[in-house]
């Protein structure tokens, strides 16, 4: 079989660099029952 890997980049990383990718989350649940 042909085990050749291909890598391509269409410049998406440069486009998404200016986008705010952080996500704000709220805590839902009682502190004693929330998973760590």
Produce a short descriptive summary.
With 36 residues, this protein is mainly alpha-helical.
Verbal overview:
The protein has 36 residues and is mostly helical. Helix content is 17%, strand content 0%. The protein is built from one helix and no strands. The longest helix has 6 residues. It is elongated. The N and C termini lie far apart (45 Å). The mean pLDDT is 70. InterPro entries: Kinase-like_dom_sf, Prot_kinase_dom. It comes from Nymphaea colorata (pocket water lily). This is Protein kinase domain-containing protein.
Please write out the topology:
Blueprint (H helix, E strand, L loop, with lengths): L11 H6 L19
What is the number of helices?
1
Indicate the radius of gyration in whole angstroms.
20 Å
- What is the mean pLDDT? 70
What characteristic shape results from the CA principal axes? elongated
Number of DSSP-assigned strands: 0
* SS-derived structural category: mainly alpha
| Assembly state of the chains shown | single chain
Helix coverage percent:
10-25%
The H/E string reads H
- The proportion of residues in beta strands is under 5%
Profile the largest sheet: none
Distance between the termini: 45 Å
Low confidence ranges: none
What tags apply to this protein structure?
single chain; 36 residues; mainly alpha; 1 helix; elongated
């Amino acid at each position: 079989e042909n085990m050749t890997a291909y890598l391509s980049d269409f410049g998406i990383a440069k486009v998404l660099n200016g986008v705010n990718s952080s996500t704000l989350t709220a805590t839902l649940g009682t502190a004693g029952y929330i998973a760590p």
